[in-house]
Amino acid sequence: MSGREAIAPSQPASDSITGLGRTTGGERIRAFDLARGLAIPFMIFVHILWHWGAPDTWGSPVGLLISFMAGPTAAPTFMFLMGASLAFSSRPTFARLAARGLWLVVLGYVLNFARGVIPFVLGTNAGVITAQQVAPFTPWWLATTVDIHHMAGLSLVAIAILRTRSNPGWLWVGLGGAIVLAAPWLRTLQFGTPLLDAPLTPILGSAPNVYYAVVPWLLFPLVGTVFGTILRRAPDRRRVFRQGGLLGLGLIVIAIPLLLVQQPSFDVITYWREPLSFAVAIVGIILAWLLLCELVTRRPWIDRRLGIVYAWSDRVLPMYFTHWILVGWGIGIVGFRDMELGPVLIAMVVTLYLTWKLSPLAAGLERTPRWLVRLLSWRAAPALEAPATAT
After folding, report:
1. How many domains are contained in the chain?
2. Residue-wise over 286-320: b if at least 16 C-beta within 10 A, else e?
3. Which one of 20, 58, 267, 281 is CB 3.0 to 4.6 Å from 78, fit for a cystine?
4. Count of alpha carbons within 13 Å of 162, Cβ hemisphere only?
5. Are 242 and 291 in contact (CB under 8 A)?
6. Is 355 a member of any domain?
7. Strands (DSSP E) along the chain, which ranges?
8. Cis ω for the linkage preceding 369 (within 30 of 0)
């Protein structure tokens, strides 16, 4: 499959991995760009809903729709595409992938202070908000929060290590499935010493302020890497999307009896913990969603009207960073979970616009420090410097 409507031209950049799932320096799969770009408004809208909207807005029909669209087609899609995009990256060495992952973790903690700790301290000292209003959030809770930024970075480090030992393939899918199955037990794992328990918390997700843990969320970039590898090597990529979509529908069907057996709660905490039924269903939805995106990109009369969405896709990391600053500091203006549905819907659109316009200010964050890449290149063993070739 080739054609301008399906594959965007390559673009040079300082990093082959820039942001949560975007690649440059190689082919740009337009369906990936569309799915990633659409995830941006879903993500912004749900964070405005949950942080600015009153609790009764969450259960409204519009609120439920926003929450669903911000579920499978947002964070899981970002992670899936982060893995899938690696197959099209021109320089996926161990040092570059690991450095990129560590940089994302650092940015995650920087963001914790910028969106949480600083506005909390200033807001409470100024009397704009009280500690009771925003409970259970405290400065320590906010500073040590583990969100998608941290999980994406740690997952990228894990993939960098895994690529030095095996090629992306069904073994990776099996590993992802095993992680999901073992996740409930792994979350209870404690060594009794902070020297081990504290570093493992972002990986195992045992603390209440760990929203996105590597276990079990590593599943999505692992499966995504396999999908991207198959797609890159396929002579007919349209067929791969079709087969992936059919597989996705099959996984959704399989997930139905799993949901009936497990009977999980359909709430955000269960979503963060990803039981097997959720994981199977979400992988299925992602594959079906990518097929739909691929079909859209092949309709020129639709595709050429989606320029803004593709532009969002090019600014995933800056827009992610910027929108959280607006959400965190905006609490001091609109209050914490006080807005009714009408005003909160307007706030979503305004925040999306401001995020887009202000995101260039955060564009420099995309560049992984060269000294970190050089450090890891120097520290890495020879086997780590020559990652396995994807097959």
Report:
1. 1
2. bbbbbbbbbebbbeeeebeebeebbebbbbbbbbb
3. 20
4. 22
5. yes
6. yes
7. 7-8, 28-29
8. no
pLDDT of the residue at 91? 67
CA 297 vs CA 127, 136, 303, 355, 381: distances in Å: 50, 44, 5, 25, 42
Q: Tokens standing for 355?
A: 């995020």
CB 27 within 8 A of CB 7: yes
What's residue 311's pLDDT?
A: 96
**Domain for residue 390, yes or no?**
no
In a domain, 218, yes or no: yes
Which residue is associated with the tokens 């597989």? 247
Taking only the tens place, the pLDDT of each residue in 190-207 is: 888 888 888 899 999 989
Domain contains 225 = yes
C-alpha 349/C-alpha 271 separation (Å) is 25
Q: Which of 52, 6, 50 is nearest to 28 (CA)?
A: 6
Helix or strand or coil: residue 23?
strand
Ranges in the chain, pLDDT < 50: 1-19, 21, 23-25, 383, 385-391
Cβ atoms of 376 and 99 within 8 Å: the answer is: yes
Token pair, residue 167, equals 């090629």
Distances, alpha carbon 363 to alpha carbons 147, 213, 356, in Å: 20, 26, 11
